[in-house]
Amino acid sequence: MFGEYKTVVLDQKEGIVISTKSVLHKYTKHVLISGLSLQKSIARILGLASFHSISLVHLVFFSLHAYSKKNTDWVGLHFFEDFDMQKNSITFKSIKNQYTLSFDNTNPCIHKRINDSLQHNDILSRITHRYHESISWSCPLNSHKTGSMIFNTDFYKPTDALISFNFKHVIDEIIHDWHYIYICHVAREHVLKR
């Protein structure tokens, strides 16, 4: 199956979905603002060496084996409220305990990776909300809370660097990127040349 298909998705509603395309790779290259480069830059500035996620404020896709050209497992942390580690395996428990998802042969430091990825998403969440405020788009900081672990600070403890972090230069770069992407989108819709 893995020789022919690049993506296998376990979906709550659709069950098992398979595709010959690499869904996350295409998403990060063509849809995600600034690709992953901006997210990786923010992680580097914050000193989050174990950052292994795609952070989208109310959605966080976490890589169990880091970014890899080989097969890797991605978990949507926004579907889960807790996780448990036993030796070298990890089990995620869904919101309201509807189901569990287990993986073997995980990195022994996976809890650090989850912590750093959730801190990273928290920072991006605050940056995004500040951006929305700057363009007069009211969006309460807690508007995406769902009971998932991505908004539960028991799973991540802000470091001193995160507490004292100055967002200004990162926010300026994001605003510039978002405006540029919006202008490019409008130009494509109206067949304008750059």
Model description:
The radius of gyration is 18 Å and the shape is globular. The mean pLDDT is about 75. Helix 3 crosses helix 5. A hairpin with a 3-residue loop joins strand 1 and strand 2 (about 15-20). The protein has 5 helices and 8 strands. The strands form 3 sheets. It has a 3-stranded antiparallel sheet with strand order 3-4-5, with helices on one face. It has a 3-stranded antiparallel sheet with strand order 6-7-8, with no helix packed on it. A two-stranded antiparallel ribbon has the order 1-2. With about 190 residues, it is of the alpha+beta class.
Features:
three-stranded antiparallel β-sheet, single chain, 8 strands, 36% helix
Radius of gyration: 18 Å
Low-pLDDT sequence parts:
none
Order of helices and strands: EEHHEEEEEEHHH
Overall geometry? globular
Q: Strand order of the main beta sheet, please?
A: 3-4-5
Instruction: Count the beta strands.
Output: 8
Compute the separation of the termini in Å: 43 Å
Major β-sheet, in short? 3 strands, antiparallel
DSSP strand content: 15-25%
Structural class: alpha+beta
Number of helices: 5
Brief write-up:
This protein is of the alpha+beta class.
